[in-house]
Design goal:
Elements: H1 3-11, E1 13-14, E2 20-21, H2 33-59, E3 76-77, E4 80-81, H3 83-90, H4 94-104, H5 109-121, H6 125-135, H7 152-164, H8 171-178
Antiparallel strand pairs: 1-2, 3-4
């Protein structure tokens, strides 16, 4: 063995991979362990934070849409809504106004019509269909319609509006209303 080899063996050690380290007092056998401990601690910390987030999310979910106030009874002045009733209805969803109109339909068809129109203006397809049914000769009756007689042209207009808004099943009524006169250019 030469002096260079002896010097090399004193000051350099080879680790498991065959790489040399310059400090013979540091053991290379456990060199990767502190890094592994740090990695484990970081992983554990991340898992704890994630678990805490899931628990908080489960206990305190944020509502996707805030609930609307109940759409209660509304007051009419003759055939018009009172200002307070109109302010209340502005806070309601179209579906709630539609449900309220359904309650008025048989007893107060004129007021139901006003509520259906408000709901239809908010793009509620069933409301447009309900208005069409008030005009439609096939479904018209003195008890459920505020009109003295049916009106095919207006029924057709409201059925088309309902179809545009996505109401299903109105195409048949449109076809029937267009067919007797043979005209498709009725009121749109």
């Amino acid at each position: 063995m030469t002096d260079a080899d002896d010097l090399k063996s004193r000051y350099f050690q080879q680790d498991r991979n065959g790489s040399e380290t310059s400090d013979p007092t540091v053991s290379t056998a456990g060199k990767g362990r502190p890094a592994r401990r740090i990695l484990r601690a970081a992983s554990l910390g991340t898992a704890v934070v994630a678990a805490t987030g899931i628990v908080v999310w489960a206990l305190f979910p944020s509502p996707a849409r805030p609930p609307k106030p109940a759409c209660g009874p509304v007051a009419f002045q003759g055939y018009n809504l009172t200002p307070q009733a109109l302010a209340t209805l502005k806070q309601c969803r179209a579906e709630q106004i539609f449900d309220l109109a359904q309650k008025h339909r048989s007893e107060q068809p004129q007021q139901a019509l006003i509520l259906f129109e408000l709901s239809a203006q908010a793009n509620h397809a069933p409301a447009a269909r309900a208005i069409a049914e008030m005009y439609d000769p096939a479904t018209w009756s003195r008890d459920t319609s505020p009109f003295p007689k049916p009106n095919e042209a207006l029924a057709l207009r409201w059925y088309r509006t309902a179809e545009t808004l996505g109401e299903t099943g109105v195409r048949e009524r449109i076809a029937i209303l267009v067919k007797p006169s043979g005209r498709s250019d009725m009121v749109r």
